[in-house]
Amino acid sequence: MSTVVPPRRGLAERVTGAIWGIIVTAVGAFLIAALSGYDVDLELIAIVSLVALGGWLLFSAIAAATRQSRREREAVAAAAPVSRTED
Fold this sequence. Notes:
The chain has helices spanning 11-35, 42-79. It has 87 residues and is mainly alpha-helical. The chain has one domain (11-78).
């Protein structure tokens, strides 16, 4: 029996997996619609896709900056000596 516990996946990894799932599902839905005879506006799909991907890039950049800033604050707090006054 192994006592090694695999690390939990972080929030970014779980959200990235969900985003990939949404992308694959959307592409499949559009292909089904196009092959079923519906009129699919590819330009509109491209515009919406680019807006969604741009929003995802902004969100992930902000999340990464926040995470890095928090780690830096924790590292500085851990490295700072604790001064105690003795009476």
